[in-house]
Write a structure and sequence with these properties.
With 518 residues, this protein is of the alpha/beta class.
């Protein structure tokens, strides 16, 4: 894919170039409220929101946090913010007060858009840098807050202001990833990065125009925000939006809206195979089942194929730092593979010790190169340099191989991240919290296998002398401070010491090999 194939425009302008083709078609439907908008109406709302946000002071470079479940307004705010050269901070609405405080400080957040149920938590978390809290559907009943509806109504119907910033260097959004190690990092995706991936996806996609796509994966995650939502809206698809996943409403939505394309993660697939209610719904309208975020077993794939009466499950690969890089299609499908590289993306496998390139079917670290790779981690140049080399190759931290036909197989993970239902959990973050307890001398956190969730966090703890702390007390201590996916669902094991290398690095493999399973 040549550079000239990727438009050098703002993300919003790029999206509008597609919206205009499907003006009268339904763009988005909220499953909970049945609210819907056409592409023409969505474009109008984005323009009004863009001008309304400008009128309250949002300008190029400002950070606007979106802390909300999935809804139509999430897309409206995202594309309104990017039209101004401002930055969308995509934040998990399940974060605790302390987690929000840390994010607002890290991102230098200036504006927050949220929903009524989160207003109190947001107010407890803000700092002096925050200028406004904007509430979706909140009216004027929240003190010191603005209503998104009123902000949108401030617009007088002007056209979208022409972008004057450089799309290649201007950050469109911050999404959070743990990279290969350490605490969560804010990674910076430019307008050009996102547009490049949308162009790449269009070059290989199995999506058809007029598709009906069901999305429950969160918009604060790059999978939900770009790989599903933004991508689907370039096709004129009808995007049916779930605020959160629930199995029966999920199946009801498929039947009611005649959904043709679904994106799932392995834990959801496992759940579906255990539900007898699947037999009560006609799910044969589904044409494509796409799965990502974690490995998929053959048994589960076969069972899900039978539920939806499809010929294959499409698997894909990517990470927040490089968005989507691989996907397979029915014509080019091998079980266990995440597919071939999407057009415009280069892949190589390197020796994990020497860094030298490896040949076909040799396992090593997966490295990615392409125009969709992030600009870097916010204010963390060393972490950026550690993951992206001088030639622009991004080291994913995953171990895999490429076969003689160019199919990528992921076999292991160098990273220390725990994957709970597709969400990343950084052990270092939980360890730091554990060490704040006055009775804990040392701690190591690992992921333990779980058939429904993939992995669940487990703490290995060394108590201080004479401490009488119980496992339940430690779990309660952590669980009160973190979002649900970070809870110590794997339990607590007490050890005499945490195995470490000469440099002080926790030897997690030794912890995994020697632990007592919960």
């Amino acid at each position: 894919m040549a550079d000239e194939d990727i438009p050098v425009v703002s993300l919003t302008e790029y999206m509008f170039s597609w919206f205009d083709k499907y003006a009268d078609d339904i763009a988005m439907v909220e499953l909970d409220t049945e609210r819907s908008v056409t592409y023409k109406e969505l474009k109008c709302l984005i323009i009004k929101a863009s001008n309304g946000l400008q009128s309250i002071g949002v300008k190029e470079g400002d950070v606007v946090c979106m802390c909300s479940p999935n809804n139509i307004d999430y897309a409206v705010v995202f594309f309104a913010v990017t039209s101004l050269g401002a930055i969308l901070q995509a934040t998990n609405p399940l974060y605790t007060k302390d987690e929000l405080v840390a994010q607002f400080e890290k991102c230098k957040t200036k504006y927050i858009v949220t929903v009524p149920s989160l207003v109190d938590k947001i107010k407890e978390s803000i700092n002096n840098n925050i200028k406004d809290i904007i509430v979706i559907g909140g009216g004027d009943k929240y003190e010191n807050c603005k209503s998104l509806e009123k902000v949108i109504s401030l617009d007088e119907g002007m056209d979208l202001k022409k972008a004057t910033f450089n799309p290649k260097k201007t950050v469109a959004c911050y999404v959070f990833s743990s990279g290969t190690t350490g605490l969560p990092k804010a990674l910076q995706l430019s307008h050009y990065n996102i547009i490049a991936n949308l162009v790449q996806l269009r070059a290989m996609s199995t999506v058809d125009t007029k598709e009906s796509i069901l999305v429950f994966l969160p918009f604060f995650h790059i999978y939900g925000l770009v790989a599903i939502t933004a991508s689907a809206l370039t096709y004129g698809a009808k995007l049916v939006v779930m605020s959160r996943f629930s199995p029966l409403p999920f199946m009801e939505a498929i039947q009611k809206h005649q959904i043709t394309f679904i994106h799932v993660v392995p834990p959801v697939m496992v759940l579906l195979t255990k539900l007898p209610e699947t037999k009560n719904y006609d799910l044969t309208c589904v044409r494509v089942v796409a799965c990502g975020a974690a490995p998929l077993s053959r048994t589960i794939e076969e069972q899900v194929k039978d539920i939806f009466k499809v010929n294959y499950i499409s698997q894909g690969y990517g990470m927040s730092e490089c968005i989507v890089t691989h996907a397979d299609t029915e014509e080019n499908h091998k079980f266990g593979s995440v597919g071939q590289a999407i057009k415009g993306i280069k892949t190589k496998i390197i020796d994990t010790k020497t860094g030298e390139p490896l040949g076909a079917n040799q396992d090593g670290e997966v490295c990615i190169q392409g125009p969709q790779i992030m600009l870097g981690y916010l204010d963390q140049p060393d972490a950026t340099a550690a993951i992206i080399d001088s030639d622009g190759w991004l080291k994913t931290g995953d171990v895999g191989h490429i076969d003689e036909d160019g199919y990528l197989f992921i076999v292991d993970r160098i990273k220390e991240l725990i994957k709970y239902k597709g969400f990343q959990v950084a052990p270092a973050e939980l360890e730091a919290l554990l060490l704040k307890h006055p009775d804990i001398a040392d701690a190591g956190v690992i992921g333990v296998p779980d058939i429904e969730s993939g992995e669940i966090p487990k703490a290995c703890v060394v108590l201080k002398k004479d401490a009488q702390l119980t496992a339940e007390e430690i779990q309660d201590f952590i669980n009160k401070q973190v979002a649900p996916h970070k809870k110590l669902r794997g339990g607590v094991e007490f050890l005499d010491q945490i195995p470490k290398s000469a440099s002080g690095k926790i030897l997690r493999r030794m912890l995994r090999d020697s632990q007592v399973r919960p």
